């Protein structure tokens, strides 16, 4: 799957169409998983609607390794989890208090007991391997000469790698999809340090376009999504890419702006 995702154009912005990278492991999930897929069993963490859980389950089915999903909250079924189970993923539910403590030795021990021999990948798949995978976006844009390259920010792995891989003269702007997203600055810096040993100075995070918080929307954002789809035939997802595209339109970022379309609805 060594394809280069295409560049298209909408409203004066170049769209890096990573949503087209893989049918079941789209966008940044493909890039973040690429170097995490060693053939060993994997267990990872996410909410009940997590795109990351869905992508890991699909990767397990496609490449033939066992997968485990540690899901936040009381046991539920929905289309994401049904898909994951159909792919062969085994699920474990953790109440919210335990889930919050998922990096603690006690909770990790529970997870390792349930999924022996599985490699543990953090929530959202953001680790040093994910940063390495996202570093491959930059070279695919080098022919532009210089640009401001944008992505949504959930856990920060995508921005950390995107910025780290950009050629000189390029900068990266992340759009937080979380309310109170200023902590993400430290997260991105931590991920870059883990992967590279240093923090690159070529990125920043916009925190004013969360529309109420994670997975929240407003009539204004919904209207924007409908209008964008009518004019460009591309449906932006309300959790991530719509908030970035709305933010890009509101800011004057420079003559050449690239938006990484990190996934799809
Ligand atoms: C998971 C996801 C993100 C968040 O990426 P992080 O690396 O966690 O910041 C962004 N966009 C889409 C479409 C996603 O599915």
Automatic annotation (TrEMBL):
Domain Tryptophan synthase beta chain-like PALP stretches: 10-263
GO terms under biological process: alpha-amino acid metabolic process
Active-site feature positions: 50
Key words, A-Z: Pyridoxal phosphate
Modified residues (N6-(pyridoxal phosphate)lysine): 29
GO molecular function ontology, one term from the record: D-cysteine desulfhydrase activity
Cofactor(s) essential for the protein: pyridoxal 5'-phosphate
Sequence similarity: Belongs to the ACC deaminase/D-cysteine desulfhydrase family.
Protein name: Pyridoxal-phosphate dependent enzyme
Species of origin: Herbidospora galbida
Lineage: Bacteria, Bacillati, Actinomycetota, Actinomycetes, Streptosporangiales
